[in-house]
Amino acid sequence: MAKILYFSILVDKFGRAEEEVSLPDSVTDVRTLLAWLRTRSGAWEKALQEDAVKVTLNRQFAEAGSAVNDKMEIAIVPARLG
């Protein structure tokens, strides 16, 4: 299972600082991960637009096309704080 960590204002918006999830087969990269999380609607849809967040995979900043899998630690932080 992938561990997803949320930081800063995202913790308040989502009501959690982390979660462990089994990624569906359709999630293959950062772009599809964010799209999948946005399907939760509400705060998730607005807060997780690609230009609104930065993503790290195993503590390294990643691009939208970077590969994602169930064995990763994924962190999502707001692109702009405040």
What's the layout of helices and strands?
Layout: E1 2-6, H1 9-14, E2 18-21, H2 30-38, H3 43-47, E3 53-57, E4 60-62, E5 73-78
Parallel strand pairs: 1-5
Antiparallel strand pairs: 1-2, 3-4, 3-5
Would you give an account of this structure?
The chain is α+β, with helices and mostly antiparallel strands and 82 residues long. Helices cover 24% and strands 28% of the residues. It contains 3 helices and 5 strands, in the order βαβααβββ. The chain has helices at residues 9-14, 30-38, 43-47, and strands at residues 2-6, 18-21, 53-57, 60-62, 73-78. It has a 5-stranded mixed sheet with strand order 2-1-5-3-4. A hairpin with a 2-residue loop joins β3 (53-57) and β4 (60-62). The protein is globular, with a radius of gyration of 11 Å. The mean pLDDT is 95.
Notable traits:
globular, 82 residues
Brief overview, please?
The protein has 82 residues and is of the alpha+beta class. It has helices at 9-14, 30-38, 43-47, and strands spanning 2-6, 18-21, 53-57, 60-62, 73-78.
